[in-house]
Amino acid sequence: MQNTTRATLPVIAVVGPTASGKSDAAVAVALSIQKHARQLGVCGAEIISADSRQVYKGFNLTSGKVTKKEMRGVAHHLLDVASPRQTFTVARYQKLGRAAIKKIMARNRIPIICGGTGLFVDALLLDARFPAAKPNALLRQQLEKLPTEKLFDRLEKKDPRRAASIDRHNRRRLIRALEIITTTGKPVPVHTTRPFYKNTIIIGINPPADILAQRIEKRVYARIRRGMIAEVSRLHARGLSWQRLERFGLEYRWLSRYLQGVATKEEMIASLTHDIKHYAKRQMTWFKKNQAIIWTPDKNHAADIIGGMIINARKEKD
Questions:
Q1: CA–CA separation, 186 vs 159, rounded Å?
Q2: Helix or strand holding residue 13 (H, E)
Q3: Which of 69, 94, 65, 68 has the alpha carbon at shortest distance from 79?
């Protein structure tokens, strides 16, 4: 493995549904690479977040953002790179993510993409091109007046393919999809299956359904105890309207409703847990379309699987 060059470095991705243990697995993979760096002929590994909400500053507990302690000294990228007051598009994520991968490889390190936002993962790994549709303030104001159900119905009529894969309760994504269609006059582009990088390894963490459901429930209660409600309250106090917060979906939607007195704490917890479980199913629906993903039910196996694949690939090349 001494002759590994930057051109042949693999791009690794660790994906899966929420609460599956992706972040822990990605850090374990990075530490394993660091431990065997000399054998692999590299200087280590760094992680790139692929989460559509962790890019925002102040979205910490609510988005499940990895903490400094959990990073265990491994460099992480694309966390806290945007203001929640601004729209962060997948096109911007792709630009920043590809730049991060290039810089990591230039340091003779292996990039590890980690996250559950399938669109973000595909934006980096696949040869995908996204429309340069700038935010349209007037159109957004008009769309904001419509109920979420109406937004989804409109998208289903204009672009049934995109409607089939989108979270029908996520107003932010529904409005963005309609904005793209209206601005470009075309459906949201179909994702290509052509890989962007020559050497890609994708590991999926997929625990049994009952275990994942238990983890989701425990995590909701744990984050509430750690201050998730106070975090959303602070975001509102700093200028984010309840309407804007609700657009981010899941925790932001239900915590905002609770803080406004629209839902009781019990209703908030029950609805949030229910919605997160359904979100996990949608994530798996997206990822299972990718036949290149190697699945494991145990996050602890990821490092062994990836390490073996890198070594074997290098042996075949040599």
A1: 9
A2: strand 11-15
A3: 65
Concatenate the DSSP letters of all residues of 282-303 into one string: HHHHHHTT-TTPEEES-GGGHH
| Amino acid 3: pLDDT | 37
pLDDT tens digits for 222-233?
A: 999 999 999 999
Judge contact between 212 and 298, C-beta under 8 A.
no
Are 115 and 50 within 8 A, CB to CB? yes
- Select from 3.30.160.70, 2.120.10.30, 3.90.230.10, 1.10.287.890 the CATH code of 210-283: 1.10.287.890
pLDDT at residue 318, rounded to an integer: 57
Domain ranges of the chain: 6-130+199-208+291-317, 137-184, 210-283
Rounded Cα distance between 6 and 10, Å, is 9
Bridge-based pairing of strands 294-296 and 45-49 is: unpaired
Report the predicted TM-score, pTM, of the whole model to 2 decimal places: 0.85
pLDDT in tens, 96-146: 999 999 999 999 999 999 999 999 999 999 998 877 677 788 898 899 899
How many CB atoms are located within 10 Å of the residue 127 CB? 12
Scanning the chain, the segments in alpha helix (DSSP H) are: 22-35, 37-40, 68-71, 90-106, 118-125, 137-144, 148-158, 160-165, 171-184, 209-226, 228-237, 242-246, 250-259, 265-287, 302-317
Show the tokens assigned to 53: 């909400």
| Sign, CA torsion 246/252/253/258 | negative
In order of 240, 242, 261, the CA distances from 258 in angstroms are: 16, 11, 5
